Amino acid sequence: MDETSGKFSSAGDLPTKRVATETALTECNRDGGARCVVVATYGNGCGVIVMGDKTRHQGFADVSADHAKQTAMATCKKDGNQSCTVVYSECSLGQ
Q1: Is residue 47 assigned to a domain?
Q2: What's the CA gap between 58 and 51, in Å, rounded?
Q3: Residue 86: helix, strand or coil by DSSP?
Q4: Structural domain containing residue 58
Q5: Are residues 84 and 51 in contact, defined by beta-carbon separation less than 8 angstroms?
Q6: Of 28, 38, 52, 59, whose Cβ has the fewest other Cβ atoms within 10 Å?
Q7: CA 94, 76, 38 angle in degrees (round to 5)?
């Protein structure tokens, strides 16, 4: 994710964390992100990115999409956002 531009990417169902990280960062940069960083990793679980009206994007991971979304939304609201939206949700069962 590039916090400044709001660009983000993901990579799932790849053989290793390293390959997934490299793929996501490459795609984020290719899509216009200048300062892409990894905000969440997951294997045999799910990742969620949430955006609030005060905070740009936050990444969360948990054992299921529902748990990740619940954590993401609670944290977003705790950070003072009135409006929070899940902008990405994906699961990777690992290989």
Answers
A1: yes
A2: 6
A3: strand
A4: 17-92
A5: yes
A6: 38
A7: 40
